[in-house]
Amino acid sequence: MNCSSKIVKKPNHTPIEKDVFHLDETSNISLVIQSNTYVLLITNPKEPPVPSFNAKLLRSIAGLALFTFTFLGSEFFFDRQMGLLASAEQVVSAQAAILGASVVGFLAYAGISKVFKKQIQQIIVSAIEAAGIILCLFVIATSNDIATMQTLGCIGFFLFGCLGAEAYWNMAYLFHRSPSLAKGAASAYSAGILLQFANNLIIPSGMPETITLSVGVIFLCVLCIPEKNPDTKHPAQENTPKSTDSLETKNSPLPKQPLSKALWSIALIVLLACMFSTLDNVITLADAQGTVSVETWPRLLLAASSLVAGFLFDIRERQYMGFIMFAITALSAISILAVEAGASPVIGLIVFYLSSGFFVTFFTTIFLQLAPRMHTPQLWAGMGRAANNLCAFTISGASLAITQSSVPVVMIASLLLFVFVIVTFIGAGWFRLPPNEHERATFEAGRIATTTPSQEELQAAFIARCKLTPREVDILHAVTTNEQPLKQVAEDMGISLRMLQRHLTSIYTKTGTQTRAGLTRALYFNTREK
């Protein structure tokens, strides 16, 4: 256990044997008394055990993986079905609409979870959401009307948002305080991408693909079923002592401002998503026109890069996650310029997917990490995905216009975005290295030194609490600040030994002590306990 100490000289008084007094149980603050000094011993508070990898964690990873597979698979399925009836530009607009509907679903989950708190209620709600998604998929697969497909697409993806938010919250809850949070998020995303790749490679389009996605939705619904009545309290509140910071709180660059950090992080994700959405629209247009197939082998790079990101982000308790993501952002900006300048679309896909894997792992991890510390954690767990989808919904028109503009326009827009990204990285605190164990112990020692009342204040409170008279206060200080016999103390004070002993008897009674040494301890060291 790490600790720090502060040596403080005591006033000259009768030497007493070595002893330990716990001043603050919540912060593990103790006084070790020996000779004429006492040592303020500050130890780090005990932390709740870090969750180990178990079946529940694997289940949460599987749930998030299935959401990734069914959500992205349904998105491409919708794009393909719309592409049979609409132009490429209409496909982009329709895709933006369903992504906007999913954002509403993500935000609505927090309210739904508060209204339906019982386990059976949540099971019924999840089943209704899954049934609604499946119905929408089958109708879209058989419809020949653009308006019908658009309407059912928005309904289906709203339900996807509700069900997906539950999957994110389950993972945030179970991975709270885990040092492998980024690895878990990356594993879930990679597994979902691999499932989508296998689906596109093996399952024929049309009704077989619809059935496959529907089965995935059913399994997602099953994995999202809570094992017990959900508690609106977040894990930090129900498992952690009041004065104990969680692993995320201690390692966060802005530990005292989770809401501020969350808002800055949303702005950062929106700006990063703006950079990615420009190239994403290029890929969507190419897919709708048949120029390049986005569901084939380049997506394997997306799965691989997200796994690499998970392992890199978790280094030293995610201390370097911000720096790593900033480097990837610079690479992403270069990839946008390269594609617009005439680079091969395949090269653009490779660079785009490599960067996107890091980006997805980044925005998933930061909100899974922040959610348990927020007032409404169910709202924030999936906020990374919601912010990304919101950006695609709100700026699709502007992004499409930039994509169709000249190279200088794209370059200027990319550079401006990059500048704004730097500002938000700094504002969110992702460029600050969290303190290590030694720095945290030093900070805690300084905090205690500045917040602990002075010895004079403690003595004054002790005297007031025991209701000592002014004469008794004089005698109290006289017998506790020197080692002279009581007869000499009486002579120095100009009173008889009998009178001094009478006052001491009264002081012993009021302070609950019996000896001169006990009175010294009570005055100098036990005031906090009293």
Explained architecture:
- This protein is mainly alpha-helical and 530 residues long.
- It has two domains: 3-44 and 453-524, Arc Repressor Mutant, subunit A; 60-235 and 251-436, MFS general substrate transporter like domains (Growth Hormone, Chain: A, Up-down Bundle), CATH 1.20.1250.20.
- The protein contains 22 helices and four strands.
- Helix 2 packs antiparallel against helix 14 and helix 12 (345-370) crosses helix 14 (383-394).
- It is elongated, with a radius of gyration of 32 Å.
- It starts with a strand and ends in a 6-residue tail after the last helix.
Shape: elongated
Counting DSSP H or I runs of 4 or more residues, the number of helices is: 22
For the record, the count of structural domains works out to: 2
Output the helix-strand order.
Answer: EEEEHHHHHHHHHHHHHHHHHHHHHH
Mean pLDDT: 77
Q: Strand order across the biggest sheet? A: 1-4-3-2
The stretches of 5 or more residues where confidence is low (pLDDT under 50) are 1-48, 229-256
Helix content: 55-70%
Strand share of the residues?
under 5%
Please state the structural category: mainly alpha
Overall radius of gyration? 32 Å
Number of strands: 4
Look at the structure and give the CATH class of the largest domain.
Mainly Alpha
At the fourth level of CATH, the homologous superfamily of the largest domain is MFS general substrate transporter like domains
Report the biggest beta sheet as strand number plus sense, adding barrel if it closes.
4 strands, antiparallel
Can you tell me the CATH architecture of the largest domain?
A: Up-down Bundle
- State the end-to-end distance: 27 Å
CATH topology of the largest domain: Growth Hormone, Chain: A
